[in-house]
Amino acid sequence: MIRNNRIYRNNEVIWETPEDQSLPDFLRAAYDHFSGQYPKFHKMDHLSKLGWLAAEVLLQHRPFTGYAPEQVGLVLANRSASLDTDLRYFDSIKDFPSPALFVYTLANIVMGEISIRHGFKGENAFFTSDTYDEGLIMGYTRQLLYEGAVSAVLCGWVEVMGSAYEVILHQVEK
Amino acid sequence: MENLMATLKAQIVEQLNLQEVKPEDIGDDMPLFKDGLGLDSIDALELIVLLQQHYQIRIANPEKGPEIFHSVRTIADFITAHQQQNK
Amino acid sequence: MSGNDVWVLGGGVICGIGNNVRECITSFRQMKPGMATMQYLSSTHRDSFPVVEVKADNATLAAKSGLPAHISRTALLSAVAAKEAWESAQLGNIREYRVGLVSANTVGGMDKTEDFFAEYLQDNQSGRLRDVVNHECGSITELVADALGIRHHVSTISTACSSSANAIMYGARLLRNNLVDVVIAGGTDALTRFTLNGFNTLMILDQQACRPFDDTRTGLNLGEGAGYIVMVSDAIAQKMDIKPWCKLTGYANANDAYHQTASSPDGIGNYLAMQQAMEMAGIGPEDMSYINLHGTGTLNNDLSEGTAIQRLFGNAVPPVSSTKSFTGHTLGASGGIEAVFAALAVKEGYLYPNAQFSHQMKELSFSPVTTFSEGNVINNVMSNSFGFGGNCSSLVFSKEIS
Questions:
Q1: Higher pLDDT pick, A96 / C378
Q2: What is the pLDDT of residue C134?
């Protein structure tokens, strides 16, 4: 879970920065702390950075091992889809529209980034809803596991709009 | 030419958000894509934006990208040729 | 007939080649693709790129859908197609069932946000906030659910160009778990300056009519529209005296895990999605009657998709075509629109033409179908939808074999 510049694992704070630190600075500091080995991180939008970091924090601690790539899936949701980046891209159109920014004007790119990083090739689903409906996400995850579509899932909520953000990510295995 | 290449390196680092690369780390003839600097197709599009923004050069055909953007030297050559053509 | 079957009862489409399913089929029959100079969207790129707009203004769409004209075109298109889909299923009063609406879109109410910003940038005091309130992708679905009287289950999916195929997968799972009786699933997207501009910076827009799976292809044309299918579970189908279009027998989604926008050269994500969907349907390559390609017309997509098809089907590639050569790429709506075409192909024995094809791709051993035909024996149809973020989906529709 990532909230108010604090990163939690299993409900324990494992790393934090002052609450008044800006989101970009927080993200950079967290990257330096938890990785420092993935330069493509800097090109991502805030949504992808948040999702990528949360996945990193979980999987470094307890990797998904013994699964074929197509057996690991992702089920995520948020409220604002990619609106945060949409507006930034909008702003860039006035000047020189940036292709690198446009790429991130889709909410599911965060799942693409996590899949690329960890080589996951299983099913992906991205929902948008007003609030985090844990029942929906967990129910769907259970169903994917039950159906045998995948054997392990990262699932949860990755939301960012301006300076407000919240990440809740779970690791579920059969 | 040397100046142009130095400027280009700084602009590339800035435009492509290469936070862990210093301009001087980029060799004049180092391949920018794949094994060299490791740029990808979106970076190539950003380089096209860079040429338009800083050098007023429009590249309409992205297929020319690999040739022009092979290395910092090939970009500098391309810019120089373009500027002389327009003199 | 296993108890887990999902039946397709009907479908609705609005896109650049027709305001309903019947009009779309007429356009295929008459070989009339929908590319034209833009008429309803205003953009500086007006004369550079042909687009495939729905040939109706917002007021007309509002009248058809029963929604107010000031709301997003994305919602208006959605309501028109979802309504047609519901009516074609002939289920009567929607309130008599537990109905779910699963709808996909990628742009949300971006058209309204653009208008708001245009005004806002000129004058900070102007611009109606009401226009931006419905921006979020989720609120588009809520608006349409309200208009149709759907209260039971409403979800919005946003996974780029494969969104609405994923909406259909999700809908099928709702039925299989008996969470609802009936599902309307698909997607919608309106053409916006935002997407036009973005695809332009990616340099994958063709300045002429797009040429999917042609060796001379240079990119895609953007389109707009909406498409939905109506599905019921086996238990419900048994109770009713209905004549379904076909069954949804297979679906799968895989991530290419290669690049944000580019497909991997071997099309591994495409391959996995197709292979797993066919496995679920319980059919082999020789059983496939037709594939509705993702076929955007970009160099990268068509090569990856073609390579994956060749790997899966070997020398026995079934008839294939990209209906995007008629409708343009309708992004979040494409999987829904093409699912309707695919399901209808099973019902009517249609094979759809691939327009603007003249040069065989040198990397491939097969080429698409170029003429419309009907009355073909069509047992299984696969519809492919692949999107940015590496998101790849395939659906299989099958005839009931009695």
A1: C378
A2: 55
- In this predicted structure, the answer to whether residue C1 has a pLDDT above a threshold of 50 is no
Q: Indicate yes or no: CB of A129 within 8 angstroms of CB of C260.
A: no
Find out whether C170 and C104 touch, Cβ atoms under 8 Å. no
Total domains present in chain B:
1
- pLDDT, one tens digit per residue, over C69-79 is 988 999 999 99
Q: What is the CATH number of domain C248-398?
A: 3.40.47.10
Question: Which of B41, B48, B49 shows the shortest C-beta gap to C262?
Answer: B41
Considering only CB atoms, C260 lies closest to which of B42, B48, B62, namely B42
Q: Does A129 touch chain C (CB under 8 A)?
A: yes
Fold classified for C6-239: Peroxisomal Thiolase; Chain A, domain 1 (3.40.47)
Q: Give me the interface pTM, i.e. the ipTM.
A: 0.91
Contact C234, C1 (CB under 8 A): yes
Best CA proximity match to C345, nearest among C287, C291, C272: C291
- Judged against a pLDDT cut of 60, whether residue C221 lies above it is answered with yes
Contact C213, C322 (CB under 8 A): yes
Domain holding B59, by residue range, is 2-85
Per-residue pLDDT, C42: 87
Q: Outline which parts of chain C fall under CATH 3.40.47.10.
A: 6-239, 248-398
Which phi and psi (to 5°) does residue A3 adopt?
-160, 140
Ordered by where they begin, the domains of chain A are 2-173 (3.40.47.10)
